[in-house]
Amino acid sequence: MVSGGSVGQESTSRRGERRLRGRPPAGAEPVGQVEIMQAALDAFAAKGFDSMSVRDLNETLGVSHNYLHRRFGSKLDLWRAVVDHWIGGVDDELHAIADRATPGDDPLEVLHRVIVAFVTINCRQPALFRLVNTEASLPGERLDYLHDRYIGPSARGLAALVARLAPTGAFDSVAPTSLFFLLAHGATAPAAHGPLVAKLTGDELSSEAIDAHARWVADLVVDGLRPR
């Protein structure tokens, strides 16, 4: 499961951030880090790695044609920075939720909190789902980076939670990998397919609808795993 309080906070700060008009003061950055990361995520998600043009992204950001190259290096380096910024934020928040759990907490309730946070974060940043979904189908160094740094450790963490729940009678017939894909790809899909959701419901998911969807998914999974 792969963006955290940091994502929500950064999204808020981005909305409040204003682009400077004219020449920036000496020593000032012409565009903020959060704005770069959002624009780059959107570009990689919309066009894929090979078709994404760094020159076009520079133009979108209103900076010089070699600004991103000077700041990040190669396009792959920029892609890694985007992944670390967004997916690293997801991991930080999910780990924070798990770390706040005490030995006496019901493991299923901890799982419920993790699911709500994971689904909510990813549904509010659908470009992240699109990026991961695209790279997950393409073997190579970018998938290796995603797996080795984020997806693999997250899957192992989920497997450890499954092992902790086994004595309760939950997960007796559920493979951790199946649960992983259910949450990482199925539960976050609606926000990533906004136009289809609009056709099915008449409107794209609102913030309130995302919250309700995340709770419903968590309730469904956790209630289904409780020992009968």
Which keywords apply here?
globular, 228 residues, mainly alpha, disordered N terminus, 73% helix, 12 helices
Q: How much strand?
A: under 5%
Query: Secondary-structure element order, as H and E?
Result: HHHHHHHHHHHH
The pLDDT mean sits at 82
DSSP summary, beta strand count: 0
Radius of gyration: 19 Å
Please report the distance between the alpha carbons of the first and last residues: 27 Å
Give the helix tally.
12
**Structural class by SSE content:** mainly alpha
Compact description:
The chain is mainly α and 228 residues long. The protein has helices spanning 5-16, 33-51, 54-61, 67-72, 75-100, 107-124, 126-135, 141-165, 176-186, 189-192, 194-201, 207-225.
Secondary-structure blueprint:
Elements: H1 5-16, H2 33-51, H3 54-61, H4 67-72, H5 75-100, H6 107-124, H7 126-135, H8 141-165, H9 176-186, H10 189-192, H11 194-201, H12 207-225
Helix pairs in contact: 2-5, 2-7, 5-6, 5-8, 6-12
Report on the architecture of this protein.
α6 (107-124) packs antiparallel against α12. The longest helix is centred in the middle third of the chain and has 26 residues, at 75-100. It contains 12 helices and no strands. Residues 2-28 have low confidence and may be disordered. The protein is 73% helix and 0% strand. By secondary structure, it is mainly α.
